[in-house]
Amino acid sequence: MKKDVKDIKNIGDIIDMRSFEVMAETSTPNEFKSLILTLEGKKIDETGGRVEKFDRKNIGNFYEDTVENYLRELSSVKSIKKETISELIKNIQDGDISSREILMEGSLKLVAKTALYYSKVGTSYIELVQDGLMGIIKAIDNYDPDCFMDFSEYMGFWIKYEMIQSNKLIVEELKSPIVAYFKNMKVEVYKSENKIINSEIKETYEAEIKRVLNMDMEEFENLQKINEYGFLIKKEDREEAEVYKSIAEIDMELAKVEKLMSVSNLANKFTAAEIKILDLYYGLSGKRKYFEEIGEILDMQPSKVKAEVEKLMIKLKYNGKKVWIDED
């Protein structure tokens, strides 16, 4: 179900990050384009949320060796000044290609920092950055200069939206076979209840299938074909599958899967304190700092800062194994 802006948990002008993720995850680009203007002046609390405890056994096997080089290169890139952005946007909307390039390059650090907050266990940092850049393009293409929202704020929301949609694709890849498995159980229970032996369903069943199983005939028939090839429920698993005696029971399990396997329920990679260290070390919010300087700012020993940076880069380079937040 699509999340409406009125459903977002907020205190004053602060929006709960997880409820924002639900809204963005369940909104189409056109829906988000309308919702975004209702968020004017609001900030997303990106410091909360569960962060999975670092464990080298849980780092996963997907390694992004370009991450460190990318962040080092960014340290020499100058961020664009807020007062310059409005002029660039006007030039872009007048067709100036060079202004678009300047805006994109000047926003690279913002995207890189935002990606740290939206990095989830099991997701790719570089992919988040790439999708964040797509968010800048979406912001440029959709921005109305006559609207009351400042472009910098408008762009920030689009960057986050595209990153959440990127994470959603990974969640859907994980969820699809599980959902298909349970849907196939529904088909099997339905066929058993109606004593349907062969795979051919009479036209008289079509309306009932839509009503009872909440699927069209094409999906119904495809699930049967897949199952016949043994891709979903193997013979040795059929006994276990039969513990679900009714379609209502299976629907309850499907609802649990939908609730659990969502972007907002995927554990974060970093705490706010860890992001602060990476931010300072790679100069994502200003000039790059070194271990001694970071130590003075955060009241840490330089050796401790160095060890933290090394640990955090391992977390950043490896995708990590998927970890869901258990709300039960």
Automatic annotation (TrEMBL):
Swiss-Prot/TrEMBL keywords: DNA-binding, Sigma factor, Transcription, Transcription regulation
Keyword Transcription set for record: yes
SUPFAM superfamilies: Sigma2 domain of RNA polymerase sigma factors (SSF88946)
Classification via InterPro entries: RNA_pol_sigma-70_dom, RNA_pol_sigma70, RNA_pol_sigma70_r2, RNA_pol_sigma_r2, Sigma-70_RNA_pol_init_factors
Record bears the keyword Transcription: yes
RNA polymerase sigma-70 region domain: residues covered: 107-165
Gene3D superfamilies noted in UniProt: 1.20.120.1810, 1.20.140.160
Domain of life: Bacteria
Name this protein carries in UniProt: Sigma-70 family RNA polymerase sigma factor
Source species of the chain: Psychrilyobacter piezotolerans
Species classification: Bacteria, Fusobacteriati, Fusobacteriota, Fusobacteriia, Fusobacteriales
